[in-house]
Design a protein that fits this description.
single chain, alpha/beta, 5-stranded mixed barrel, 12 helices, binds 2'-deoxyadenosine-5'-monophosphate, binds fe (iii) ion, binds zinc ion
Length: 472
């Protein structure tokens, strides 16, 4: 037996990256000799091991193997995988796991020393590299950034000078993210002057997978059924359109319903005041969509499950009226559609990023999705607006690298691409609420993003007007 981790690790040991299809093929074969033959036969200049490097794999790709693959596979975040009771010690494991995994991604690019070693007199005034978790971020009176970085051996203060190149990256540093720093140690050994900030990041050579067979997925978010600002007319137009569209999948990244008691005075803004009835209504709406659509639904902070992330899937007692073609997943969830992996994350951490990063705003969620990808983490900061349920493992890391990161929550559309990974925030089906008006948040409602799984090309449809408008 070969598991995927062993296979990936075997390639990493020889400084090779490996395409997920190759991993899947080798795991399916379960043949250690085959794995060794592939490792030893790839040409020297190979960066990513692809199907073409594996004898026999190209052939089976054209044959029956792909036809028998399930079209939807919940890789991470399937129903029932989170939600256990946690003890205090789990927080230690949680951050340790995060540090080990994300630090490992940085470690492969530099040789870092334990922070405790910086205390040794021989490193004074020398160049040093460390990897650690950011424990505190401060601005100095002169506008530089001073952060405390911690590993299992100790803590050191690091200064990012505002006049040095790359300072903009240092301004986006968040508490609890894992970074590497290359710099010079002060003569008293107490301060590291940063030359370079390293993040776990996505390699430039990352090659996204595309499906061999035709297929389209429709991406939406934040439906907010039950709210008096839910755009039912626009939804009807969307519903009408999708009945005639050639899409096979519909994904929603949370805030399926408006919920009950989510904010003070919410009751006055609800047209459906019972949580069961809110889900029943959504179930009815989804029942009128074609049954051939696979509908994948994740929760958000307005849904009935606990707010702490990872959020469990919507429990069965709320989904009795939903059609059978619905799949309920956690937040976050990594979903494979014909091999194209979509990481669904509601996006609550965007609130924290906006609060903690100079210049970040609700008007444009794209940079925040890029920062998630760069950090290989969906919600690094613990103890602010995003509640995190620490487990023995960190389920909020971005690993493996998806083809698409899909978010919602801010109710504003944003689309970008970072090192080959698409990042999409589809917006909302709710018009501006009184709260959003106060906060000066201007939503872009009633949009659906269509993802072509063969080409990863995107088309955006806007249903907010009487006629559907295709934006690109
Ligand atoms: O989030 C809808 C929008 O409102 C989204 O842009 C985030 C913003 N929002 C929500 N809660 C807060 C708080 N507490 N502070 C600042 N901004 C917030 P939704 O999750 O649909 O309510
Ligand atoms: Fe929302
Ligand atoms: Zn939300």
């Amino acid at each position: 037996m070969l598991d995927t981790e062993t296979i990936v690790q075997r390639f990493l040991d020889t400084k090779l990256q490996v395409h997920p299809e190759v991993v899947r093929y080798l795991a399916e074969k379960g043949d250690t000799d085959l794995l060794e033959r592939v490792v030893s036969s790839v040409p020297n200049d190979t960066i990513v091991v692809l199907a073409q490097h594996v004898q026999g794999m190209g052939l089976s790709k054209d044959g029956t193997r792909f036809l028998t693959d399930p079209e939807v596979e919940i890789i991470n975040g399937s129903e029932g995988s989170s939600g256990g009771v946690l003890g205090v010690a789990d927080y230690l494991h949680y951050f340790r796991h995060r540090y080990d995994c994300l630090g490992g991604l940085i470690r492969s690019r530099c040789s870092a020393m334990p922070i405790m070693a910086l205390k040794k007199p021989r490193y004074r005034d020398e160049k040093c590299t460390i990897i650690g978790l950011v424990s505190e971020v401060k601005s100095t009176t002169k506008g530089h950034r001073r952060v405390d970085v911690e590993d299992a051996s100790g803590t050191v203060a690091v200064l990012f000078n505002k006049d040095r190149p790359g300072f903009a990256e240092a301004e986006t540093l968040l508490p609890d993210e894992v970074i590497g720093v290359k710099g010079s140690l002060s003569s008293d050994g107490k301060l590291l002057f940063a030359d370079q900030l390293m993040r776990p990041d996505i390699p430039h050579s990352h090659a996204p997978y595309t499906s061999n067979t035709p297929g389209k997925a429709v991406l939406i978010s934040d439906i907010h059924v039950g709210s008096d600002t839910f755009l039912d007319d626009a939804w009807d137009r969307f519903s009408q359109w999708i009945r005639g569209a050639d899409a096979s999948y519909l994904l929603c990244a949370g805030d399926l319903v408006d919920g009950i008691g989510i904010y003070p005075g919410q009751e006055a803004e609800l047209t459906i005041k019972n949580i069961y009835e809110q889900y029943d209504f959504l179930g009815e709406l989804l029942r009128s969509l074609p049954s051939r659509l696979k509908i994948i639904l994740a929760p958000g902070n307005h849904d009935v499950v606990r707010g702490a992330e990872p959020q469990p899937a919507i429990p069965r007692k709320f989904t009795g009226k939903f059609p059978e073609n619905c799949v309920f997943v956690e937040n976050p969830a990594l979903v494979s559609l014909q091999g194209v992996r979509v990481l669904m994350y509601h996006g609550r951490s965007i609130d924290d990023q906006i609060g903690l990063t100079p210049g970040a705003s609700y008007e444009n969620p794209s940079p925040m999705m890029e920062w998630m990808l760069k950090r290989r983490h969906l919600a690094p900061t613990y103890g602010r607006k995003t509640p995190i349920a620490a487990d023995r493992q960190d389920h909020l890391m971005i690993d493996p690298i998806p083809e698409v990161l899909m978010t919602g929550h801010v109710h504003v559309m944003g689309i970008t691409q970072y090192h080959g990974t698409l990042a999409i925030n589809a917006g909302t089906w709710q018009s501006q609420t009184a709260f959003q008006k106060q906060m000066n948040i201007n939503p872009t409602p009633a949009r659906a993003v269509v993802l072509d799984l063969q080409t990863l090309a995107l088309t955006i449809h806007d249903f907010s007007g009487e006629e559907m408008v295709t934006l690109s």
